[in-house]
Amino acid sequence: MGQFKERYVVDDSGKRVEVLVGVAEFEKILEELESIRAYDAAKAANDESIPLDQAFREIEQEETAP
């Protein structure tokens, strides 16, 4: 993930209590989180692994099937 320009909301004692980020940065964070969750789910499934080139071939075959 890249560098974000976050701003903090602090309480009366100066303790950080919230973070403010721009919409574009927030969307990037959500996309990254989605990727991490998908990876974790795939690892937890303990499915059989196949080589990457074979996976691409199978995906392409599915996309071109009627």
Mean pLDDT across the residues is 88
Percent in helix:
40-55%
Strand order of the largest sheet: 1-2
The ordered string of helix (H) and strand (E) elements is: EEHH
Number of helices: 2
- Structural class, by secondary structure, is alpha+beta
CA distance, first residue to last residue: 38 Å
**How would you characterize the largest beta sheet?**
2 strands, antiparallel
Shape: elongated
Number of strands: 2
Structural commentary:
By secondary structure, this protein is of the alpha+beta class. It has one domain. Helices cover 55% and strands 14% of the residues. A two-stranded antiparallel ribbon has the order 1-2. The mean pLDDT is 88.
In short:
The protein contains two helices and two strands.
Question: Secondary structure elements and their pairing?
Answer:
Blueprint: E1 7-10, E2 16-20, H1 23-45, H2 52-64
Descriptive tags:
single chain, alpha+beta, 14% strand
